[in-house]
Amino acid sequence: MNECYYDKRMDFFYNRTNTDTVDEWTGPKLIVVLCFGTFFCLFIFISNSLVIAAVVKNKRFHFPFYYLLANLAAADFFAGIAYVFLMFNTGPVSKTLTVNRWFLRQGLLDTSLTASLVNLLVIAVERHMSIMRMKIHSNLTKKRVTFLIVSIWAIAIFMGAVPTLGWNCLCDITACSSLAPIYSRSYLVFWSVLNLVVFFIMVVVYIRIYMYVQRKTNVLSSHTSGSISRRKTPVKLMKTVMTLLGAFVVCWTPGLVVLLLDGLNCTYCGIQDVKRWFLLLALLNSVMNPIIYSYKDDEMWSTMKRMICCSSEDKSQDRRSSRIPSTVLCRSTDTSGNYIEDGIIQGTICGKGDLGDKGNS
C-alpha cells in the first residue's frame, strides 16, 4: 500500500521535484511585481463590474447573448480574485503552504478558466441556434439562461475541485508533475487536452457561423435597401464574439501546452523558464475582454461612460441618434422569432424611423 503525504508542507513536494520557487524573488523585484499585479487586478475588478452593470442597466442588452456576456465578465472578475490570492501565495511563500491551501490556490485558477471556457461554449451554442436558423435572437427564456449560468458555475467549481477530490499524487508521489507538484501528470494531460479540444471545436463552430452569416448577408444585400452598416449587423456581432474567443485562445493556449508537456514528463522542454510569462499572458485575457466589449460595441462604451461620469441616461438623445450600436439587434413584435431576411428587408434589424423606435419599446 502506497504511503500518503497529506500532512506534509509544500516544501517537501517542491524539493522532491526540484521545482524552482524563486527564493531570490524578494526586495524591490517583489514590490514591482506586486504593484503591477495589483494594478491589473484592480482594472479587472472595475472594468468587468462596469460591463455587468451596463448589461443590467441598459434595456437594449436584455437578451440571452448579453446575459451570457455578463457572465463571462463575472468569470473574469472571479479570475481577478484568483490572481490576487495567487500573488500573495507564490514565490518563496509557496514552500510554506499547506497542501489544502495550495489546492485552493490552484483550484481558484482552474475554476476561473473553466467558467470562461464553458461560458464561451454556451455562447457558441446560443449563436448557432439563432444564426443558423436565421433568427436574430434565440428562444432562450430568462429561466433557461439562469439555469445555464448556474450550470456553468457548477461545472467550473467541480472541475476546479477534481484534484482535491482525489485525482492527485499525494498517495503516489512518483506520478507528481513538476509545475504542479501535487497534481498527477495524468491529470495535467487530461486537463490540457480537454481544454485544447474544446478550443478547437469552438473555433471551428464560430468560423462556420461567421462564413454562413457573411454569405447570407452578401446574398441579401443585392435585394435590400439601406446602409451597408445595417446589412452587416449580424457580421459585426460575430466579429465581436470571435474577437473574444480569439483573445481567449491566444492567452490560454501557451499555458495549456506547457501543462501538457509537463504531464508528458518532458524534462528537456524548459517549462520552468516560461511558466510565469504564460501565467501573465493568461492574466492579460481578463484585462483584454472589457476593452474588447467597449471597443466593439458603441452602446456598451456609451453606457459605461455614463456610469463612470455618474450621469443619468439621456433617453431622448438615444431616440434621435441615427447610429445603432454595432452588436445590438433591435427587438421585433413578432413572437414567433425574428428572422434575418425579414429583418433586413423590413428594416427591423436596427431599422429606420418608427420601426427602430418600435423595436426599442
From TrEMBL:
GO cellular component, one term: plasma membrane
InterPro entries: GPCR_Rhodpsn (IPR000276), GPCR_Rhodpsn_7TM (IPR017452), LPA_rcpt (IPR004065), LPA_rcpt_EDG7 (IPR005385)
Domain of life assignment: Eukaryota
Entry-linked PROSITE patterns: G_PROTEIN_RECEP_F1_1, G_PROTEIN_RECEP_F1_2
Organism of derivation: Chlamydotis macqueenii (Macqueen's bustard)
Residue span, G-protein coupled receptors family 1 profile domain: 47-293
Membrane found in the keyword field: yes
GO molecular function, one term: lysophosphatidic acid receptor activity
Name recorded for this polypeptide: Lysophosphatidic acid receptor 3
Annotated transmembrane regions: 30-53, 65-88, 108-125, 145-167, 187-207, 240-261, 277-295
Keyword Transmembrane helix: yes
